[in-house]
Amino acid sequence: MAVLYSKEKDGSLKELSRTEVVLNSLNPKWITKYTIAYYFETVQNLVFRVYDVDTQFHNQDVKMLKLEEQDFLGEASCTLAQIVTKSGRSLTLDLVCGEQSSGQTHARKLGKLTVLAEESVSSKTTIELRLRCSELESKDLFSKSDPFLVVSKATESGMVVPICKTEVIKNDHSPIWKSVFLNIQQIGSKDSPLTIECYDFNSNGKHSLLGKIHKSLSDLEKLHSAGTGANLFIPAALGPNQQNKVLKSQLFVESYSEKIQYTFLDYLAWGYELNFMVAIDFTASNGNPRLPDSLHYIDPSGRPNAYQRAILDVGEVLQYYDTDKHFPAWGFGARPIDGPVSHCFNLNGSNSYCEVEGIQGIMMAYMSALHNVSLAGPTLFGPVITSAAHIASQSFTNNERKYFVLLIITDGVITDLQETMDALVQAADMPLSILIVGVGGADFKEMEILDADKGERLESTTGRVAVRDIVQFVPLRDVQNGDVSVVQSLLAELPSQFLEFMRFRKVQPTL
Hints:
This is Protein BONZAI 1 isoform X4. The chain has helices at about 80-85, 185, 215-225, 265-270, 305-320, 360-370, 380-395, 415-425, 445-450, 475-480, 485-490, 495-505; strands spanning about 1-5, 15-20, 45-50, 70-80, 90-95, 110-115, 125-135, 145-155, 160-165, 180-185, 195-200, 210-215, 230-235, 245-260, 275-280, 325-330, 335, 345, 355, 375, 400-410, 430-440, 470-475. By secondary structure, it is an alpha+beta fold. The mean pLDDT is about 90.
């Protein structure tokens, strides 16, 4: 019998499922399936333990078996990402003795275990929704509100993560938005609770809540077929016996349709990879790296600074999707030894190549760069984005199955906003997404503009509008105290940005 566990953050194991008992076999094939929700944005650690069930228990329900009364035959561990990125989604692992499975090389091998994953058909379903509101309140003194919707899901820890947003409609109290697409795999199921919030857009990034509603996709489908609306509410102020304030404003579902579409996992099975790239801000506003109050200070105790944390957190998730684990790594805003200020230099100190090996390679190159460059300025993003877009463009021209993810970690206000917007509009045509982590206490208003989630698509100097939104921005301070890590907030939208590119370029997997 095999037992499947998930390994929690604190290292404890949570039992998920047991297979049936296969009698008298040294090469058992189990048929029990277990459905597990796949979350791209987190590392899901799995542990498999195999037991020899004593003959006297053969007629017992497997759930009732006491594992300590059976003979332990070995265990294997991996992440869910390691299984879904293998061709055929099949992964063979060595079974080893319990204490030794944590990575000791001389573990006694006790046979092999092959794990096979398949995506359930329901998770391939994409829902297209067209939403409208009526009788929204006015938050602006002299004009009507500029409403947009944010749809969010609840994570297992109870935190709320946005999964899609509509465009902003100017001056309208009865807006009808363009269609949004929700993937069942992203949400969990049609009955999973969703929160839909309606905001009045403000250019300073402080959007006013016009009302919210909790509905599952099944509820929204019912609203559509009945042709009725549901009232929005404003959450009660904290305190005992406080009631939510129900509004006259209503949400209607103008259209609702379901179709089976290629999923993110289909593209992975076809051999698509995600290639990680990183760019680090070395401008002087970070403070002198030798002093403890600097954002670049390397703590002798080994506690990672904000830059190291962002690299580790994002790299930990993305590394499984890149087979060679060679990551381009750049710095910007510093003066390399004997040279002028550079806005895109290779972190490894080389003049000819920009790649380093593995997440550890990025960490080493970052620490050595701190000794070899002098911090300067200004903060320009344009050159780094152009370099990343160039690599993505060449890869796409060569028909490589690669999608690139550039992580930019910065402490400051950018100086070349328009040049950055021009570079982003061009980069939107490429297989590229850009994650920006803001560290420190600066005003990140410009980042909100680049992260076109909040409303309008970016426009270049020549008036060209970006074909898609490729930027996700998260200020580290906003998420430091919550349960959702920076990574989850940053990565939750990545699979849909990836799929949007594939549909825009009409790339279809042949499975």
